Amino acid sequence: AIIAIPAAVIIDHIRINKAMIIAALITAVADICLVWVRPVWLICLFSATAGAMVNLHFVAVSPFFMRNSTPVERTYLYGVNHALDMTAGFFGALIGGYIPHLMVNYGLSILLGYRIAFMTGAAMAIVAVVFYSRIDSPEPIRKGKINFRDYVSARDWKTTFQLCAPNILIGLGAGFTIPFINLYFSSRFGLNTAEIGKIYSVGQLFTVFGFLAGPAIAKKIGLIKTIGFSQIASIPFFIVLAFNYHLAPVALAFWFRGSLMNMAAPLYNNFAMEITEPQHHAGTNSLLALSWNMAWMVSTYLGGRLIEHHGFVPVMLTTIGLYLCSSIALFSFFRKNAAIGKAAKTETRIVI
């Protein structure tokens, strides 16, 4: 999260495809170094470096889409990107987990398997560089010497606050429960790791569907209504998670909750970019990432303490309250922007 603000400055002063190339190359180098270093402090350093580059890439994506797309396909672009990211992450984790066990089956060291997995990840990052280098990215928004005073004084801080406030509430709500869902299934239903993994796998399919369905709904009713209603619609499923002790309805509630809440994420990024001046896209996206991650960090700590002493019901009720407050704030702040994202009657229809 700390890299988010410097990342915005970098993105504003160089072509975005170059920022993505830098992020991919440094990620590859960090992954390769992780394979061979032994001291714990070096492992932490290269892990943090790889994480920082992921954050740089995340901050760059939304401004990149805004500069390389039109309103007709933009909403779909955000949703498809998140769906592809989720799908690629799923198969990456599957392959990365399989390689070490494959090495053991052939009588080789499991350490060698982990090294091959990391090297494969580094190779994928290098392959991404080839595609990034072929993108014709527009000129950077800002040129010349970096002036941090301009970043502070020229920003519309009212709009920035209004964008960050609902995001903070969602980050707080998610942090109270999401990191502990595997513990929830284990302690309430006695499930083992493999059984929990199967539930998560199906949940990822629901999430991908949510990413793809969100843009189509937004074209009908607008971005803000889609975001707000998807958050509110997830609340009954949280109530099921809190009070139901039967696995089948709880698993269904977990899947639908994930689909609805994740549906809103790319749409909110899209909306934030639409109401922000182009020169502030990277900065706004970095502040959104920073606010969400900091809120998540705080509530994860508090959620762990609450679960330890009072169980899962209080944290889930807290999450419900925070999600409801976020939706109220969203509609209060952005009523006048309700038409953003809604398809015009003359707009070409995109089928996905």
What does this structure look like?
With 352 residues, this protein is mainly alpha-helical. The chain has 2 domains: 4-133; 154-337, Growth Hormone, Chain: A (Up-down Bundle), CATH 1.20.1250. It contains 13 helices and no strands. Residues 348-352 have low confidence and may be disordered.
Features:
single chain, 352 residues, Growth Hormone, Chain: A
What is the first-to-last residue Cα distance? 33 Å
CATH class of the largest domain: Mainly Alpha
For the largest beta-sheet, the strand count, sense and barrel status come to:
none
Number of helices: 13
What's the average pLDDT?
87
Radius of gyration: 21 Å
Q: So, CATH architecture of the largest domain?
A: Up-down Bundle
Count of beta strands: 0
Beta-strand portion reads under 5%
Q: Helical percent range?
A: over 70%
CATH level-3 fold name of the largest domain: Growth Hormone, Chain: A
Structural class: mainly alpha
Number of domains: 2
Short structural summary:
The chain is mainly α and 352 residues long. It has helices spanning 4-13, 16-36, 40-67, 71-105, 110-133, 148-153, 157-177, 181-189, 193-221, 223-243, 247-274, 281-310, 312-334.
